[in-house]
Amino acid sequence: MKSIYDIQQLLKQYGTIIYIGDRIADLELMEAELKDLYQAQLIESREYSTALLILRHEIRFLREKEEKDR
Description:
Blueprint: H1 4-13, H2 23-39, H3 45-69
């Protein structure tokens, strides 16, 4: 798993498609869905931690970009 797209494809395997229209909200919702999958023992801890790292990095990047654009 290397990208947000990979995470979306993983979630899609479990019937979850996320699109709210707000990129940060989408990513936060993906994080919550991943947590649920991990707690239900449907995904491995390595998959979970890698996905979280990717999501949190992207969220941080977008928030910093928003701050910069103000």
